[in-house]
Amino acid sequence: MPKQVDYESRRRRIAEAVCLLADEQGPEGVSMRDVAARAQVSLGAVQRCFRTKEEMLLFAVDHVGERVTERVRARIGAGPAQSAATALGHATDEIALLGEEHRAEARIWLAFVAQAAVSASLAEPLRKSYAALQKLFVRLITEAAANGTADGPDAVREARTLLALTDGLTGHVLIGHLTAKEAGGVLHAHLAGLWARLGVTGPEAEG
After folding, report:
1. Residue 21, SS3 per DSSP
2. How far is 142 from 26, CA to CA, in rounded Å?
3. Among the listed residues 65, 57, 48, 35, the one whose alpha carbon sits nearest the alpha carbon of residue 7
4. pTM of the prediction?
5. What is the rounded CA–CA span in Å between residue 157 and residue 106?
6. 2 pLDDT exceeds 50?
7. pLDDT value at position 71?
8. pLDDT tens digits for 127-140?
9. Cβ neighbours of residue 128 under 8 Å, at least 6 residues apart?
């Protein structure tokens, strides 16, 4: 009886190989043949999963984005009920990729962002990922503001600012301009300022 192939599992395995190679030499240096060798599958197996290198890279971008998103969801959903302020703090910590354990993932993400500057097709999934994160930030800021004492914020503007800050801090840590601790301090100071402007009890004062 012919062996059944789990194509989705194989596609994820190939995506992991793409990420490892992109981390080493950038997305532009990734070839389907090298990916096959790193994933320990045949070139034909890669080509059956992805018709072109571009299609393979697009799937890898989505794969990284989904990995980060799943961690954000797990962090927000873990433990007892959290306030919106606490949930936003957890979400930004995950998205900034400041921890040593996420350093390779941060390099891969920024490598894809750099390549997307000259690749419209690669830019599209990145825009979708950023739009989804911005939507999450808007929701959490709006929910937190509802419990505050000040006038409601421009939640979209605040979300855009926070998303740009988390993204920028990732790069600053990667090139050594800031340590992860220093970048975390910048991020938490920004959030504390946001809660103060809204008259919201921040996470530090909840416990």
Report:
1. helix
2. 38
3. 48
4. 0.81
5. 25
6. no
7. 87
8. 998 999 999 999 99
9. none
